[in-house]
Write a structure and sequence with these properties.
By secondary structure, the protein is α+β, with helices and mostly antiparallel strands. It is 28% helix and 27% strand. The chain is built from nine helices and 16 strands. A seven-stranded mixed beta sheet has the order 3-5-7-11-10-9-8. A five-stranded antiparallel beta sheet has the order 15-14-13-12-16. A hairpin with a 5-residue loop joins β13 (284-293) and β14 (299-303).
Length: 320
């Protein structure tokens, strides 16, 4: 973190969205204007959308609210919360510490250098634009009981966002949130453990809030931001605290009632319910009508042969 301290200080100076001259930034940071220009190029690589105007200086395209550990812990209770501005992956950070963490520990970041999604895909994680958080959970019932947890967390987050002013948020099997057929968030559940013992779960969330277009070149699907979906967007710190709380509450509830307690809630907000879809399973493609999920978390797909439950694969709208 020490090597990033100057860059983080520079971002804090620019966070107000106003123009700041290279000279004044240099004085504040104890470096030359050329040094400031060098640091600006690096933070632009982190996905920050910056203007440079001769005679005026540097300016972020939009002001950003930086995450604040103290503010978040005022709003939510969790046994351990770490805010690490620059990190490879919040999920990997917690996975590396399994055995040393209290259940419910949380890691937040402003920027992930190696963020990842399902099936090892890269997750675009520009600085300060979105929300990247992971939580560790010890599930005493074991690994077999963890099936469908991404569905449980997806329902909890979608419902929380709806209550915050985004009523059209929907879930996509097995681990995404959608708004108007565009991806808004992804959930990644990773676990370790042994048969007959507790399962160690790390649940990661990547939520687009105000993704700058400069950071989207590598995205190969329709996507959207929460600031488009939400009529009155809360601050990032309030949002982080709210989602940490709802994730933890959903996990406690899951331990009590299992996935069966979430099936109806899922089906009410399933983005693809009763719509024609393609289910992609490697080279195999099955087309049918999505009919929600069952109590094991499997996708129910209706074809000419009837309704079949599938536990693997990915779905997309037919014809898309």
């Amino acid at each position: 973190m020490k090597e990033h301290s100057t860059r983080l200080a520079l971002i804090r100076l620019l966070a107000d969205g106003q123009f700041h001259s290279g000279e004044k930034l240099g004085l504040a940071l104890g470096m030359s204007r050329a040094g400031v220009a060098k640091q600006i190029k690096i933070i632009q690589q982190w996905g920050l959308d910056l203007y440079c105007v001769q005679g005026k200086g540097y300016c972020l395209a939009e002001p950003i609210e930086l995450l604040n550990n103290e503010r978040i812990t005022e709003l939510v209770t969790c046994p351990q919360l770490e805010l690490i501005p620059i990190i490879d992956s919040t999920n990997q950070y917690l996975l590396n510490q399994i055995g040393q963490l209290p259940s419910g520990a949380v890691c937040l970041a402003e920027y992930q250098q190696a963020g990842r999604g399902r099936r090892g895909r890269q997750w675009q994680s520009p600085f300060g634009s979105n929300l990247y958080l992971s939580t560790y959970w010890r599930l005493e019932a074991g690994m077999a009981a963890a099936m469908g947890l991404s569905l449980v967390v997806g329902v909890a987050i979608a419902e929380a966002l709806q209550q915050l002013g985004a009523p059209d948020i929907r879930v996509k099997w097995p681990n995404d949130l959608y708004y108007h057929d565009q991806k808004l968030a992804g959930i990644l559940v990773e676990m370790t453990g042994q048969a007959g013992a507790a399962a160690h779960l790390v649940i990661g969330l990547g939520l687009n809030i105000a993704m700058p277009t400069v950071a989207t070149n590598m995205i190969d699907q329709a996507w959207t931001n929460l600031n488009t979906a939400c009529s009155s967007l809360p601050s990032r710190n309030v949002l982080a605290a709210t989602l940490i709380s709802c994730i933890h509450q959903s996990l406690i509830e899951y331990e009590d009632v299992g996935l069966s307690g979430f099936v109806d809630r899922w089906n009410k907000i399933d983005n693809f319910l009763n719509r024609p879809v393609k289910l992609l399973m490697g080279e195999r493609v099955v087309e049918g009508i999505a009919r929600g999920i069952n109590e094991q978390g499997a996708l129910l797909l209706e074809t000419d042969s009837g309704i079949t439950a599938y536990v693997g694969g990915e779905i997309s709208l037919r014809g898309c």
